[in-house]
Amino acid sequence: MDESTYQLEVERRVAEARAAHLPALVLGYPGFHKLPSLDDLPFLVEFTVSFARNLKLDELAKLHNLRYLSLQFVGQIDIEPIAHLEKLETLFISNGKISSFDVLKLLTRIEALDLSYTNFDDLRVIARLRNMRSLNLRGTPVSDLSPISNLTKLESLNISDTKVTSLRPVARLDSLLKGARQTGHQYDTHTYGGILYTNAPLDDPTLLGFVGLRKKERTEYVLRHLQKSLDAEDSANTDWDEIALSSLSGVPTPFEFSFSPGKAVQAIGGSANWPSLPLAGSASDLAYRLAASREIANGIVEGLDAGEYQVRREYARELRRYVAKLPTDPGTGNILLADAAARTLRALFSVEADVLSTGFASSLKTFLEQHIGLRAYYPEIQTFYADVRDGKLNTPLPLDATGKFARTVKEFTPAVFEPAVSTALDETSSADDSPTLKPTESEPSSSEKVLQPPPDPLGEIEPSKARSLAIAATVGKLWKAFMDGEKYNRAIKAWIDAAHKLRPIVQMILEWYWKHNSG
After folding, report:
1. What is the largest CA-CA distance in the chain?
2. Domain 3-234, what architecture?
């Protein structure tokens, strides 16, 4: 068949599925190049496309009830449209080149993910997909498993033919043993549960001896060996640091960092800036809420600049900080820093509620209510709150260590770190940097009604603990990126000197976090 005939066949199959209300649709024609309209297919829950090269996937955004999607042998594609598939639970993308995988971080309901034989190489993108039960990375350039060390539901992991050298990050995932004991085909067709690592260049020869065993015995022996090794190590050595870093990698931070060969370590936007859009109208509603929050904040600042309100200057400072960091589009801005500014404003409001004028208090309350409504679209804010509350250590983060770390980073800028890295550290350190809150001397008129700040649905958190955890997690992610670069640049003097100065400082911070996390 020629291409036009293939295309007609595809359109016929889609029309047939629409007329018969079929729940599943398979399009496997090597000559077709364009998806027909996928309107009016609300009953479709499974969709498979294969052998269609360089296909545009825009029509997929209309399949809001889709739970299973398979894209195989599809060449080079842009998967951005799957961001709209809020019910998706299973995603197979194999034998293709993807322009960007960032959209995966929005698929919070994903339970099974197959990215085999694609160009996927950075597990940080999927580090927050905590419902994941099956993950197939076969034939990908993935090398570091640390970002998935907190996926405690993971029962099936295939890293065969990857660049992974260490299984230590998944040593505590006992869920893999549960998967290995399952029978049948609950997972992908290459693993069936447990852990599989054929042809992975592991640095532990003992593990290579287990690779030919059946899945149950292989997974049992691997986890037993790894856990015995970890338990025997002293908590102060480098391997303990790796465990703490793996745990820290799951804490949302205002900034993340990356290293590319030939470049200095650079700051990049944190994953928290990518919103969750669960419903068809979520994107437009989020855009409206962001615009409203920005407009209200700017309106209050204009009133302060015009002298309409006599309040402390911190209100204007935090409102300006909020506007500067509030996202404009998905992936932009810095929602965690904007939220920190809003928390500071709410703390000021709470202490000074009985002395603020009704007009100013009313505007501030409206602003805070609007911001609280935004949080529903940014789930990592809630995750950060939980991480702060779960901390068991009240000892402050050692300021000497964090100060030395920041100064050392500046010392090795731009040879090792881009200038934006120091800026990121400074901004993270200033988050939740509230002044000592003492009510002002003025009092409202007796006729004025005292307004209170809206309750925070996520509960109260101590600003100093939030700031300490944000700094520690940011340092951890920067250190992780630095170590990636150190492996590549270990013969360059600037990297050697930076490592020598930074390593003992980082270990102090990691020790604080270990105690914060475990008590």
Report:
1. 86
2. Alpha-Beta Horseshoe (3.80)
